[in-house]
Amino acid sequence: MGIAGRKSFGPRACIVGACLGLLAMIVVFAGVGSASFSQSFVETLPGYPGKLPFKLETGYVGVGDMDEVQLFYYFAESERNPMADPLVLWLTGGPGCSGFSALAFETGPITFNYTDYSGGLPSLVLNKYSWTKVANIIFIDQPVGAGFSYSTTLEGRNSSDTKAAADAYTFLRKWLINHPQFLGNELYIGGDSYSGIIVPLLVTNILKGLEAGLKPKMELQGYLLGNPVTDHFHDQNARIPYVHRVNLISDEYYEDAKSYCGGNYVDVNENNTECVTIMNTIMDCLLQINLCQILEPQCAFSSKKPEALEWDRRVQEAETVRHLLLDDTPMPPLKCRGYHYVFAYKWMNDKSVQAALNVRAGTVENWVRCPKTFTYYTEELSSVVSYHKNLSTTGLRALVYSGDHDISVPWIATLGWIESLGVSVFDAWRAWYNDGQIAGYQVKFMNDHFRLTYVTIKGAGHTAPEYKPKEALAMFNRYLARYPI
Predict the structure, then answer these.
(1) Residue 42 near residue 109 (C-beta atoms within 8 A)
(2) Is 193 annotated as catalytic?
(3) Which one of 64, 116, 195, 442 has the fewest CB atoms closer than 10 angstroms to its CB?
(4) Which of 192, 312, 406, 408 is catalytic?
(5) Which of 190-204, 281-295, 336-350, 419-433 has the lowest mean pLDDT?
(6) What is the pLDDT of residues 244-270, one digit of tens each?
(7) By three-state DSSP, how is residue 133 classified?
(8) Annotated catalytic residue within 179, 244, 405, 462
């Protein structure tokens, strides 16, 4: 998902017309937004021929004092044994990316048919490497304002790291109360990208609830994270050593950067002209590199070279989507992954699709996969390493994985904070295999109270299952089955 910088986006004053429009929408919401819980079963979807061969449920769960925040979700049952297989709550990154992004582009049971598109409403195909082959998965639009989630009040629009985690905990409690058949299933919390900030907070909230005896009792077993934002400074600072390792900058540039910048490549002092100069040189080397997967093309729709490096994937995507949605002509050759996301915009903003998903009419004007800016969200926490350290005493199992061709959250940053937890290495760095081929590398950490497996997925990018679906499913399946990866 898109990687946000350290800038926080708080509430902004709206102009009179916009506020009046929002107040008018709240009047519309009053009749539909007060329910604590609603659900519907989806048997057919526009673009898919016939009845869906898996069980799909969508709905809203109200959170907040007056259920003013309505969080939309997609629940796909396991295609193997729903009553025995684990339950996974999956949080998508951003902040503000829709859960549908993970469902359609990463680990869900359906995706888009990219090969036969000639305009109009995109068609759907099954994902043979869906994680729902072995688990029940709830994909949630969170925090409020993501996807089809909305608020019935002005104040309810505001969210933050801690509030997002608290709302997700309330969501999960209410969802399980309304789905008692899954109370006995093993529970895992997962997410990638910016959800690396939220997941450990949510897991901590669940543990506190269990300690306090709150109902329903959850069978929490562990958590999993992919290319997770964890510590803003160290995640970003590791980008320079990483691009040197993969030969995107020369030895000379890297040695100069270390010397002139003192190992700090994030908070550069503008008065340190030597550091500023070498960092600008390095940024020039990366201008036309795909930061989420260095081997894939970086597509843009401008005739001139970009003036500055844009780290936020959401900003990059916004220009691609804007260009490709200007008209309904056939898509260009799908040489760029960013083109794939346009299918979601075309499909999810179709009224027949929203009706099939039982989206409440009038609640969200325009569905966005990952908003360019998330206006009413405050990024409170610059690091959650301390949360992981606390979780390393809890008896949980953790899986942390990295697509090893991602610059935005490089694997060396992730392995670095894992090593800082002080948990002993149980199984040293070695290859792991799928279909007789090396799929990546792994190292296991363990103490008397905690087990963490760190895995790289060879050749994958920022959202690893999107790039290497077969290998990612093999990793996920082995983790849930407690089988060595």
Answers:
(1) no
(2) yes
(3) 116
(4) 406
(5) 336-350
(6) 999 999 999 999 999 999 999 999 999
(7) helix
(8) 462
